[in-house]
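Researcher: I'd like a candidate sequence for this fold, 180 residues long. If you have to choose between options at a position, lean toward the conservative one.
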C-alpha cells in the first residue's frame, strides 16, 4: 500500500530573509525527500560515550539539522540559537539537534564548540562533501526533518524554527513510511 503525505509550504514569515533566493530555491528541492547521507570523512565532536549518528537514528523524532561556521557572527549564533529553541520545548525527548560545521573555519571549530559548550552532535565537514550534498555553503541553514525522515522545512529564522518544530512534534511517526 502507498501512503501519500500532503506537505504544505513553509509560511513566508518563518523564513530567514538573509538566505540568498537562488540558494533557497536549490536547497528547497530536498523538501519531502530524505536527508542526503553524512559523508564518511566528517569529524564528529560528540558527548562522551556516544557514537556518530546516522539519520535513521532519529526516526520517530523531529530532527533539526543546523549548519554553521565560526567565521561569521550569524554562523556563530546559529548552533546556540537552535539549541535554545529545542530546549524551550517540554517534549525535548521528541526532538533532536545535529549541527554541521561548514568547511570555512573548520580548523577552529573544535575550540569554538568547547568554548561555547555546544553539546549537540556536531559534524565538522572539512572537505565540504556533506555540505555540498545538502546544498549549503557559508550561511547558516536550518533543516527540519519530520518523524518519518522527510525534510519538511529549510532556511528558517529562530521563530520559524520554533513554529516548525511545534507543528511536527504533534504529527505521528508511521514506521511503514519509507522516505527516499
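Model: Candidate sequence:
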Amino acid at each position: 500500500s502507498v501512503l501519500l503525505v500532503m506537505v504544505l509550504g513553509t509560511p513566508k514569515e518563518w523564513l530567514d530573509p538573509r538566505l540568498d533566493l537562488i540558494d533557497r530555491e536549490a536547497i528547497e528541492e530536498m523538501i519531502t525527500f530524505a536527508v542526503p547521507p553524512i559523508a564518511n570523512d566528517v569529524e564528529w565532536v560528540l558527548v562522551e560515550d556516544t557514537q556518530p549518528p546516522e539519520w535513521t537514528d532519529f526516526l520517530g523524532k523531529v530532527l533539526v539539522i543546523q549548519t554553521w561556521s565560526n567565521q561569521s557572527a550569524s554562523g556563530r549564533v546559529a548552533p546556540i540559537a537552535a539549541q535554545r529553541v529545542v530546549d524551550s520545548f517540554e517534549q525535548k525527548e521528541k526532538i533532536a539537534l545535529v549541527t554541521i560545521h561548514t568547511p570555512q573555519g573548520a580548523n577552529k571549530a573544535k575550540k569554538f564548540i568547547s568554548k561555547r559548550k555546544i553539546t549537540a552532535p556536531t559534524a565538522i565537514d572539512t572537505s565540504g562533501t556533506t555540505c555540498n550534498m545538502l546544498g549549503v555553503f557559508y550561511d547558516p541553514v536550518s533543516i527540519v526533518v519530520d518523524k518519518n525522515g522527510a525534510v519538511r522545512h529549510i532556511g528558517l529564522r529562530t521563530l520559524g524554527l520554533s513554529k516548525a518544530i511545534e507543528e511536527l512534534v504533534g504529527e505521528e511517526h508511521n514506521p511503514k513510511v519509507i522516505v527516499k
